[in-house]
Amino acid sequence: MYKDNLPKKYFEALPKKIWERMISVDDDIINTAPNLSKFNKHNPYKVPEKYFNNLKTNLFKINNRKTPTRVLSFRWQYAAASFALVLASFIGFKSLNKNATEDFKELVYEDVVDYYLLDNEIDNSLLLELSEDNALNDSSDEFSEISDEDLDLYIDIIIDDFTAEEINEVI
Amino acid sequence: MTELSDENILEMLSNDKNFDKGFEILIKNYHEKLYWHIRRIVHFHEDADDAIQNTFIKVFKNIKGFKGESKLYTWLYRIASNEAITLLNKKKKKNLTSWDQEVDSLGKQLIADSYFDEDRAQLVLVKAIAQLPDKQKIVFNMRYYDEMSYADISEALETSVGALKASFHHALKKVESYIKEHIDYV
Asked: How many CB atoms neighbour CB A127 within 10 A?
């Protein structure tokens, strides 16, 4: 029964694999880098408590989504919220319908693009991360390649973090 | 419970009825390994967290097109490596600093990072690896930490075994030289 769960010819290939690892990695290191060979392979990096359990749970959700998107980390949520505040301040002079979030979205759209193009300080990573194309094409990290849909999604994420009351407060 | 092999996982993924379960097992088997692989390249937890999520999203989107021309695990390492490099490139575009400033700044940030051990020798080693060009860094990590065979690294990075051996050898020399220069008690 256990055999079914192993790669084909696993045991036949195992001694060669072990031998290759024992000989070549250690020999290379001892001969070429004697000081490095004195280091133990201790992992100096740490993760938050229960991180891997939470990660696993979040990753399982990918499977349940029609179009998978990443779970925004706290840092991105913070960045989105901060950016929304800056945006709202920037366009504060516009007269807006105070109770209509949808109207707000429409009005801010052009301003988002203008603001973004004017101010390179704005972190473009969130936009890039949201880009569907970016998930499939590593070379698409140019602002010019971010589609209107991605910008819409970006604005949605920013604005969805706010209640209508909060938006009204800011503007 | 015995960990299911990559072949078993691929078999489950090829069948719509078992796809969900297969994808869950793939995540269970690989989320930690790939996280650590990415973390050693990008150094910071939040960056690694972003990159690991992107990695699995890509895996999800492309797994049905996986034709088994390489091993599943080397394919996963390839995607994770690309995600890590993409993230590093984005950061580099923002910080146009020289190489030594970059390594110096990394050291300071790691000292301040609560998710990094305050071990001076390890910090020197991390900085020694950080000075390597990105691809050489990945080769070094796969060989030194993950102890992958050259054949598997070759599959993952689509680079010839000869080039990888030379790359690892150069990396070792550079790391050794940095350690000698920056540490006095190893």
From this structure: 20
| Sequence-ordered alpha helix ranges (H) in chain A | 10-20, 26-32, 51-62, 74-90, 101-118, 125-130, 132-136, 148-160, 164-170
- Interface membership of A8 toward B (CB under 8 Å): yes
When divided into structural domains, chain B yields a total of 2
From the list A45, A48, A76, the residue facing B39 with the nearest CB is: A45
pLDDT in tens, B67-80: 888 899 999 999 99
Residue B151's domain spans which residues?
101-186
Whole-structure pTM value:
0.64
CB contact under 8 A, B144 and A29: yes
ipTM: 0.84
By C-alpha distance, the chain B residue nearest A20 is: B149
Task: Say yes or no: B15 and B73 in one domain.
Answer: yes
How is residue A140 written in tokens? 């698409």
Q: What CATH number is given to the structural domain containing B17? A: 1.10.1740.10
Interface test with B, best of A4, A28, A59, A129 (most B CBs within 10 A): A59
Note the residue count of chain B. Answer: 186
Q: Identify whether residues B171 and B107 lie together within a single domain.
A: yes
**Lowest pLDDT segment from A153-157, B78-82, B102-106, B160-164:** A153-157
